[in-house]
Specification:
Nucleoside Triphosphate Pyrophosphohydrolase, 2 domains, binds iron/sulfur cluster, 339 residues, 40% helix, globular
């Protein structure tokens, strides 16, 4: 009998898989969890430094649970999708209150925590506890859809159901942590979105997409929808010391709880008295999952040291010492400072 799908993947992993990522040394449930949350929507190469800083500051569930959410978000600044950081913090508190600071080793217990979906729960069970559980992240979806020749966009529930059933069916009888890592690694390094290296793939002998020359068609892309656009006016106000006025955003919604530039409802009424008429800066286009956000800055110099009305929620910050601000806001400030 030819080797199974899982056996071929595991043999390939022994020679080519990634074994030196920081969250694999050591591979604990907590470290797997944090890395999996960071890796949602973000490349491994970007996550490595964030993960290392995060673990230095929060080496345990307890240290994360007892931190201020602001400290968590400031280490998240630049990674985007900040709800992930807030949920991580909330889930750590639930773990301390209800699970003695330990991650549950079962899918249902994990999925009950904020921010943990089915695939992340599967990754924690398989890689954190070395127990059988399927995963289905973007890389794994691509490999399975191609190998089994599954048509349709994986975001459709009927297609997702088929893929989950396949992922479950193909689990090995042991080495669950390596198998999950191998599935992700193959998708990330061999069965890539564009130009997969089928000649180097351990699954090529019976891969439907490869044999029928359909790798470019599978998995099917998301059907096109009209993308929404939103436009926001932002005040880039600096004082005579070169400090910028920042405002803390409401706790929920985009960039919830982070510091940002004050948003203007009315471009003619700045939040402080200015010494010069504001000038419009270049528009920064920021792509989010659900819409395109056009950030339109109005740059201006404010008069002297003015009292700030909103106490805690507005403050001046030196550009070299900004608190947790989203990457596009940091970029707007840097561009405003550029000579
Ligand atoms: S043979 Fe090609 S398309 Fe099929 S799983 Fe391997 S890399 Fe992907």
């Amino acid at each position: 009998m030819p080797p199974s799908y899982a056996d071929r993947l595991l043999t390939w992993f022994d020679d080519h898989g990634r074994k030196h990522l920081p969250w694999q040394q050591p591979r604990t449930p907590y470290r797997v969890w944090v890395s999996e949350i960071m890796l949602q929507q973000t490349q491994v190469t970007v996550v490595v430094d964030y993960f290392t800083r995060f673990m230095t500051r929060f080496p345990s569930v307890e240290s994360l649970a007892s931190a201020q959410v602001d400290d968590v978000l400031s280490l998240w600044a630049g990674l985007g999708y900040y709800a992930r950081g807030r949920n991580l913090h909330k889930a750590a508190q639930v773990l301390c209150e209800q699970h003695a600071g330990k991650l549950p080793a079962d899918l249902a217990g994990l999925e009950a925590l904020p921010g943990i979906g089915r695939s992340t729960a599967g990754a924690i069970v398989s890689m954190g506890f070395d127990q059988p559980a399927p995963i289905l992240d973007g890389n794994v979806k691509r490999v399975l859809a191609r190998h089994a020749g599954i048509d349709g966009w994986p975001g459709r529930s009927a297609v997702a159901r088929q893929l989950w059933a396949l992922a479950e069916d193909r689990l090995p009888s042991g080495r669950f942590a390596d198998y999950s890592q191998a599935s992700m690694d193959l998708g990330a390094t061999v069965c890539t979105r564009h130009a997969p290296a089928c000649h180097a793939c351990p699954l090529n002998a019976d891969c439907v997409a490869h044999r029928s020359h359909r790798t470019h068609e599978l998995p099917a892309p998301k059907p096109k929808a009209n993308r929404k656009r939103r436009r926001s006016q932002l005040w880039l106000i600096r004082n005579e010391q070169g400090h910028y006025l920042l405002e803390r955003r409401p706790p929920v919604g985009i960039w919830g709880g982070l510091w940002s530039l004050p948003e203007a409802d009315d471009a003619t009424t700045p939040p402080l008295a200015l010494v010069e008429p504001p000038r419009p800066g270049p528009v920064l286009v920021h792509e989010l999952t659900h819409f395109t956000w056009e950030l339109c800055p109005m740059s201006a110099l404010a008069r002297g040291a003015q009292a700030i009305a909103d106490g805690d929620n507005m403050s001046w910050y030196a550009p070299d010492n900004l608190p947790g601000v989203p990457a596009p806001i940091r970029r707007l400030i840097e561009e405003d400072r550029a000579p």
